[in-house]
C-alpha cells in the first residue's frame, strides 16, 4: 500500500525537461610539455620555495606580505564566509526546535465559526466576546531528506569552501612570487647602478684627459664633447635606475600592505645562481600542484552537487512538524493539565505545476556547471602553456647567458691587453682606461640576462604551483 502511494506520488511530480548534457573535460594527453623543452635539473618546487635563495631579507619580506597583504586578508575572509555558508546549509537539515510564547487579545465575531463564544454564558464557559488567549510550548520541525536534496546542497557548499581554501593558497603563491620579482628587480637595479658608476668614472677620466689636451691645443674639442655626452648619457641612466628603485619599493609596499615606514630597508646582495628545475612529465600531477586548478576542480564538483539538488527538487518532499505545550482562551487556565496540547503533523509536498520554475532552475544549474567545466579546461591549458613558456625561455636564456659570458671574456682580454700595453709604455693611460667601457657594457648585458633568468625561474615556480600539494586531486564525475 505504501509502495503504491509512493508510486502515485512520483507519477504526479513535475517532469524534467531540461536536464542537458555535461561538457567533456580536457583529455589527459593534453596535460604535457613538448618533447624539446628540457632543463638541466628535474623536479617540482618545494614548500617555502623562496628559502632556496638563502636570502634573509627576502624571507622577511615574503613572510610579512603573507601576513599583512590586503589580498590575504580578503582571501581569509572569503574562507571564513564559505565555512559559515556550510554551517548555515547544514543547520537547515537538522532538527529545528523553538520555544513559543503567544499572547492574543481578541474579540470573537458573533457571525463567524466561533460565533457561540461571543455570547455571555459563564456556566458554559462562554465569557465573550473578548478573550485573552495564551500559548506556551515547544515547536519542532524536521525535513526528511529522502531524495538527497539537502545532502547535495551541503556537498555543494563544502565544495565552495574547499575551493576558497585552495584559492587562498593561490593568493599566497601570487603574493610570494610578486614579492620575489620586485625584490630581485631592486637588487638587479642596485648592480646596474654600480656598473653605471664605473662607466661614469671612466667617462670622468676621459673628460679630464681630453680637456687637458684641448687646453694644450694638441687635439680638437670634438673628442672632449663626445666624452662629455657619453658621461651625461650614463648619468641619465643612473637617475632613471634610482627612480626605478623607488617605483619597485612603492609597488612592494602596496603589495605588502605596509605603511609609509612599514617597509624595511633593502641592502644590496649578489643575485643568486639559477636553481630552476622542470619535471619530466606533467600529466595529472600538475592538477594537484596548482592551487588555482584545484580550486577550479572544487567549483566544478560543487556545480555537480547543485545539479543533483536541482533534480531532487522535482520529487516529493516530506517533513514532520510537532508542538507540545499549553493553549487556553483564558490566561487563568493556561498552566492547567486540561490546557495541554500536542500536535504531530507529517507533511507531503508534491510539485505538479510550477510554471517551469524547477526546469529553469535545473537548466541554469547545468549551464553554470558546463561554463565552469570550460573555464577549468581553459585554465588547465593555460597552466601547461605557462610551464612550457617559462621552461623554453629558461632554455633560451641559459644559451644566451653562456654566449654572453664568452663575450665578457673576450672584451676583458682586450682590456687586459690595453692595460699591459700601458704598463709597458706602448699605449696611453686614456686608452687603457677607455678599454674598460666595452667590458662594462657587456657586463650590463650579462646582468640583464641574469635578471631575466631569475625572473623566469620565479615564473616557472609559480607555473608549477610553488610547492602546493593536494593529494589526491579532486576526482570529477559529471552527472
TrEMBL record:
One GO molecular-function entry: efflux transmembrane transporter activity
Membrane topology summary: Lipid-anchor
Keywords: Lipoprotein, Membrane, Palmitate, Signal, Transmembrane, Transmembrane beta strand
Chief subcellular location: membrane
UniProt cross-references to Gene3D superfamilies, sorted A to Z: Outer membrane efflux proteins (OEP)
Domain of life of the organism encoding this protein: Bacteria
Any one GO cellular component localisation term in the record: plasma membrane
SUPFAM superfamilies membership: Outer membrane efflux proteins (OEP)
InterPro entries in the cross-refs: MdtP/NodT-like (IPR010131), OMP_efflux (IPR003423)
Subcellular location: Cell membrane; Membrane
Coiled coil regions, renumbered to chain: none
Family membership noted in the UniProt record: Belongs to the outer membrane factor (OMF) (TC 1.B.17) family.
Protein name: MdtP family multidrug efflux transporter outer membrane subunit
Species whose genome carries this gene: Paraburkholderia silviterrae
Amino acid at each position: 500500500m505504501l509502495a503504491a502511494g509512493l508510486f502515485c506520488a512520483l507519477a504526479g511530480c513535475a517532469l524534467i525537461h531540461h536536464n542537458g548534457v555535461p561538457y567533456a573535460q580536457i583529455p589527459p594527453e593534453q596535460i604535457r610539455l613538448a618533447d624539446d623543452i628540457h632543463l638541466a635539473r628535474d623536479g617540482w618546487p618545494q614548500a617555502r620555495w623562496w628559502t632556496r635563495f638563502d636570502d634573509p631579507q627576502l624571507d622577511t619580506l615574503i613572510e610579512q606580505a603573507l601576513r599583512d597583504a590586503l589580498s590575504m586578508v580578503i582571501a581569509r575572509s572569503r574562507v571564513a564566509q564559505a565555512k559559515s555558508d556550510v554551517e548555515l546549509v547544514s543547520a537547515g537539515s537538522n532538527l529545528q526546535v523553538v520555544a513559543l510564547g503567544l499572547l492574543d487579545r481578541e474579540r470573537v465575531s458573533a457571525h463567524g465559526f466561533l460565533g457561540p463564544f461571543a455570547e455571555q454564558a459563564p456556566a458554559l464557559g462562554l465569557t465573550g466576546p473578548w478573550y485573552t488567549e495564551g500559548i506556551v510550548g515547544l515547536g519542532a520541525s524536521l525535513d526528511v531528506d529522502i531524495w538527497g536534496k539537502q545532502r547535495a546542497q551541503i556537498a555543494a557548499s563544502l565544495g565552495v569552501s574547499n575551493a576558497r581554501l585552495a584559492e587562498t593558497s593561490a593568493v599566497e603563491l601570487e603574493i610570494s612570487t610578486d614579492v620575489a620579482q620586485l625584490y630581485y628587480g631592486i637588487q638587479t637595479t642596485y648592480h646596474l647602478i654600480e656598473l653605471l658608476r664605473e662607466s661614469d668614472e671612466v667617462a670622468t677620466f676621459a673628460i679630464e684627459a681630453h680637456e687637458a689636451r684641448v687646453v694644450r691645443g694638441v687635439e680638437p674639442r670634438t673628442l672632449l664633447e663626445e666624452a662629455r655626452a657619453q658621461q651625461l648619457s650614463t648619468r641619465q641612466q643612473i637617475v632613471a635606475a634610482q627612480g626605478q628603485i623607488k617605483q619597485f619599493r612603492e609597488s612592494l609596499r602596496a603589495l605588502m600592505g605596509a605603511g609609509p615606514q612599514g617597509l624595511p630597508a633593502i641592502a644590496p646582495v649578489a643575485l643568486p645562481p639559477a636553481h630552476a628545475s622542470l619535471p619530466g612529465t606533467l600529466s595529472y600531477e600538475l592538477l594537484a600542484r596548482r592551487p588555482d586548478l584545484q580550486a577550479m576542480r572544487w567549483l566544478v564538483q560543487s556545480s555537480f552537487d547543485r545539479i543533483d539538488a536541482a533534480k531532487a527538487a522535482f520529487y516529493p518532499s516530506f517533513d514532520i512538524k510537532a508542538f507540545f505545550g499549553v493553549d487556553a482562551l483564558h490566561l487563568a487556565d493556561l498552566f492547567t493539565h486540561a490546557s495541554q496540547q500536542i500536535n504531530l503533523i507529517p507533511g507531503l509536498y508534491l510539485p505538479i505545476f510550477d510554471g517551469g520554475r524547477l526546469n529553469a532552475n535545473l537548466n541554469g544549474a547545468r549551464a553554470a556547471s558546463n561554463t565552469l567545466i570550460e573555464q577549468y579546461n581553459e585554465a588547465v591549458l593555460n597552466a601547461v602553456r605557462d610551464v612550457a613558456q617559462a621552461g623554453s625561455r629558461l632554455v633560451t636564456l641559459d644559451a644566451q647567458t653562456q654566449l654572453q659570458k664568452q663575450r665578457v671574456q673576450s672584451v676583458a682580454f682586450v682590456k687586459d691587453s690595453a692595460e699591459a700595453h700601458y704598463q709597458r709604455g706602448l699605449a696611453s693611460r686614456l686608452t687603457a682606461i677607455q678599454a674598460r667601457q666595452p667590458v662594462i657594457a657587456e657586463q650590463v648585458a650579462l646582468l640583464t640576462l641574469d635578471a631575466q633568468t631569475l625572473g623566469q625561474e620565479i615564473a616557472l615556480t609559480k607555473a608549477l604551483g610553488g610547492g602546493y600539494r593536494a593529494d589526491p586531486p579532486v576526482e570529477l564525475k559529471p552527472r
